[in-house]
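Extended Data, panel c. Modelled sequence:
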Amino acid sequence: MAGATLTTIKFSGSNFKYLENAGFDPSINFSGGTSFEIILPRNLKKWSINNEILFSSYSFQGKYLDMENERNFTLSTTKIGYSYLKMNNLIRYKYPLKNIHIYINAGISNGFALSETNHRKKETTFCTISNVEDIVAIQGPRMYEQGIILGTGIKFNKFSFEFRYERGNGMSDFVTLNSVTNRYFFLLGYHLSNNK
């Protein structure tokens, strides 16, 4: 399966205005992977367990201007990006409708970070003095993300299309900083077998 993912991120907490108010635009990226479906024999084989390995990534950039007055201000440019290898465990219910199957999914995701962008450029101006610092945006980020998944799709012969939503707990490991990721997947799939 492969497709596109639209990701948004939201930070909330205290003393992290450069993240909360950075105005991060949504990130659109490629996602792809493979899955293994175990069809349960009861209830006309309508229920199944899906185990997936999926690659997913996002990249954000935002700016925040903390201005006390025209001669004393700080401009922060923040870049946050992660690539994950995700292990998803889903329960699926399929309903036959003529030549197609309509299905819904629900489950959990466990993402392990493969790469990271975690950078803050802090430009401080006081009167005529300017100072530039290149520092990390988030100290000690979490490299393991958990999430919940809901999705729906259709399957025709060996092909499928699915829309999926995932809410994750992001990368912040601070008690005082909450990070929430919202992912919207648009996935096309090809099935090696045509199990009903």
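The radius of gyration is 21 Å. This feature is highlighted in the accompanying rendering.
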